[in-house]
Write a structure and sequence with these properties.
Elements lengths: L3 H4 L7 H4 L10 E5 L2 H11 L3 E5 L14 H9 L2 E4 L9 H7 L5 E3 L27 H18 L4 H26 L8 E6 L3 H7 L2 E6 L9 H13 L4 E5 L5 H12 L5 E6 L14 H15 L16
Helix pairs in contact: 3-6, 3-7, 6-7, 7-11, 9-10
Amino acid sequence: MLTKRSFLTGFAATPLALASTPIVAQGKLSVVATTGMIADAARQVGGDLVEVKALMGPGVDPHSYRQTRSDIVAMARADVVLWHGLYLEAQMQDFLHELSERGTVTAVAESLPRALLLAHEDYADKFDPHVWMVPDLWVHVVENVRAALAAAQPQQADAFSANAATHLNALKDLAAYAAKIMATVPAERRVLITAHDAFNYFGEAYGFDVMGIQGISTESEAGLRRIADLVDVLVDRDIAAVFVESSVSDRNIRALIEGAAARGHKVQIGGELFSDAMGEPGSYVGTYIGMIDHNATVIARALGGDTPKAGMKGLLNG
């Protein structure tokens, strides 16, 4: 049985720790989400009925993130805790499973139909967690967020359902936009090379060959052999652009560019993509729709596709 002490392991029984017993919601639901993408879904579905805190901000890598003392207290006090699952928050997983004994903790991607998931290249019994890269997959997560909020506050279930329906319609528009501009990228240029394999679902959805220097998890190291192999791909397939990621060091991407240059092939950085984290809070790219609009627009434009200058909604910095 989970106790206050067990999920505050390693901390003294200070007044702050003792105050961590979950408080029954008086009005707004208190929601803690691990990633910015999940936090955005909770805000879209919950609207004015929720207060949402994201543990991981811009540029934070969820694969290696470990909960802090303040994170533990925030989750212990929250009415609802939402995490991704599918081994994304690998360093937090044991703690989150223990915390789930409270009954207010939901892994919002864990129950996606297995037929929709891609195998994890590093772990035979797990799946690639990066389902947010495709809006048609993210709708399942939004529905799970709606269900989690409704379970915590049943009297507001209708409001959560209405908000979710509005957001799901926006996701349909986003999916249609992404499919439209990706179709304009010439077939021979549909090769997406990034810092790590966060874009496999994207490639599956839009017909791109996706190659990451690191594996699905940023915990896996990129070896010299892998970089040399990708330099061969750049040269042999005459690829002119590679992409950095906001939450992963650009060191290995720079090594790729230098390796290609040493063989007389010029490669440029096509832009920075949001892979495991969104942009700054309060900005357009600090929302899920803005994040995917940015990624799709930047990728299509850099690889020769036809895109609006400022993206789907005219809100990107062209």
